[in-house]
Amino acid sequence: MIELQGVWKTFSVGPVRVHALSDVSFRISRGEFVILTGTSGAGKTTLLRVLYGAERPTEGEVEVLGRDVPSLGRSEVAALRRSLGVVFQDAKLLPARTVYDNIAFVLRALGTPRSQITARVFDALRKVGLSSRAQAYPAQLSQGEAQRAALARAIVRKPPILLADEPTGNLDEGMATEIHDVIKDIWTSGTTVILATHQAGLAAVLKRRTLVLERGRLIKDQG
Amino acid sequence: MVGFLVSEAFRDLRRAGRVALSAILLITLALAALGAFWIVTSNLGHAVARWRDRVRIVVYLRHEPDAAALASLMARVKAVPGVAGTTYVSRADALASLKRVLGKDASVVDQIGQNPLSASIELTPSADASTPEAAREMLARLGAMPEVEEVAGSADWVERLSEWQRLLGMIGLGVGGILGLAAILTVTTATTLVLHARRHETEIMRLVGAPEIAVRMPLLLQGMIQGLLGALLAVAVLTVAYRLAAPHLEPLMSLTLGLGEFSFLPPAGLAALIGAGTLLGALGGWLARAGR
Fold first, then answer.
1. How far apart (Å, rounded) are the C-alpha atoms in residues A60 and A5?
2. Using CA of residue B188, residue B193, residue B223, residue B14, what is the dihedral sign?
3. Does B125 share its domain with B12?
4. Per-residue CA distances from B45 to A9, B37, B51, B131, B164 (Å)
5. Regarding predicted confidence, which is higher, A48 or B192?
6. Across the interface, do A74 and B212 touch by the CB < 8 Å criterion?
7. Are residues B174 and B148 part of one domain?
8. Mean pLDDT of chain B
9. Chain B residue numbers touching A80 (CB-CB < 8 A)
10. Are A122 and A156 contacting, i.e. CB atoms less than 8 angstroms apart?
11. B169 with B283, same domain?
């Protein structure tokens, strides 16, 4: 489903070359729950960006859902992203739209028939436990609720892969646990999940396969 | 998808707020100015065409030519640039015409004894001779013919009218062009503001793999909507202004230019104005997004 082979990503800042990813290789099968951990700046975000085609690796092979990601053109990257759900530390909700409209916006932008939109939005909201807040605006939500809304938006198209980049980075422990529970529910429904977090202890709590990055290198693949 | 694109375009238009309103008003001004000059110049054009048809230049001949000489002369006159039509008037025809004009006093002519009138050729100038230079050259060529005694008549004042028509047309295009350019820049500014305002939407759309048309088309559409609204407003302004002004202008036009009716723009002209407005808006929207 996801396979990286000898992936390097180097950024040049003037004469300085920074290796955000150094010779990273791994394989993730369908239905796995993988935690990607490491300190800030270890390369977690860059790795996820490489997976959804926002960064092109300097070297190496990246295959996602059978597609050779580095060779994809703009429209092919868009097609790949239609099969991925992505959430970030910042929920990135549109402030002038309700929770319902934030999620419906994605479906409408992708040309989903109008007759299917309401049912699909509420299905996604139910999965994240946010049905009662459908008409609330982002400013009226707690951070945990905002992150649930972002998760609902990511899964509303039922993508086979969910990429979560520090989705609980801004949350207190209680809220973070709630979000992790939601992500686990999404995983148990058959979605492959890659959860990036700097919280090393989380891997022990969730008891899932863990990839540890350090200064761009994959130093541990366990579980 | 179309519904989504249009609703996003209207949302963007609301976001642009006063700048979009300024753009719409500038497009209205540009097209109303263009339309107003168009109405005036087209009416002047009607007057020029009408009067040009009525202009007669009379070429008086030294002697009445025989049939062979007449054929040769007529061929040479018709070959002069700017001559659209010719009618030969013999001395006898001229006398008969004079008698018709004199009516019951025609017997005065009989008392003269012999026919005092010259044979002549009446000319109608063509549109080619509409510039003063061309008209002067035509008259000079006719006057230089050995058979010609005198050339009478001139299209000078008609040509002056024609020059006014051309001048007003140019001013209209100039004013409309400058205002149109300002309108394009304002639409571009409005679209740039919208681009900034909708950056989060754009980011989300790209993240979920929305097709590029769904990302970009609303920007182009909101520009086109600004243009269309501006054009429709301009047509409304022109229509109201015409209805208010025409009853007062028509007597003046009749008196000075001989025009019975002060005409409005034809439906094709109105459609062209609306199309031009939409195009102006689209251009503004495109210019803003082309930079991104």
1. 6
2. negative
3. no
4. 71, 12, 10, 14, 10
5. A48
6. yes
7. no
8. 83
9. 209
10. no
11. yes
Same-domain check for residues B35 and B172: yes
Is the CB of A79 inside 8 Å of chain B's CB atoms? yes
Q: Which residues of B touch A74 (CB under 8 A)?
A: 212
My answer on whether B178 and B117 are in the same domain is no
Interface residue of B8, B200, B207, B215 to substitute, partner A, most A CBs within 10 Å: B207
Interchain CB distance below 8 Å, B214 and A75: no
**How far is B2 from chain A, CA to nearest CA, in Å?**
9
- Single out the residue in B118, B137, B154 at which a domain terminates: B154
Question: How many distinct structural domains can be found in chain B?
Answer: 2
Same domain, B167 and B136: no
| Closest CB from B3, B201, B209 relative to A78 | B209
Please say which residue of B126, B154, B182 terminates a domain.
B154
Give CA–CA dist B181/B172, Å, rounded: 14
Categorize the per-residue pLDDT at B155 as very low, low, confident or very high, splitting at 50, 70 and 90: low
Tell me if B43 sits within 8 A of B129, measured CB to CB: no
The H-or-E segment that residue B87 falls in is strand B83-89
- In this predicted structure, what is the pLDDT of residue A55? 92
Measured between beta carbons, which residues in chain B are less than 8 angstroms from residue A84? Answer: 209
What CATH code would you report for A2-222? 3.40.50.300
How far CA B238 is from CA of B37, B44, B241, in Å, comes to: 11, 18, 5
The helix (H) or strand (E) run that includes residue A93 is: none
User: B276 and B170, same structural domain?
Assistant: yes
Domain that holds residue B210: 2-51+159-290
- What confidence tens digit (pLDDT) does each residue in B14-43 have? 877 787 888 888 888 888 888 888 888 888
> By three-state DSSP, how is residue A195 classified?
strand
Query: Of the candidates A52, A75, A81, which has its C-beta nearest B212's C-beta?
Result: A75
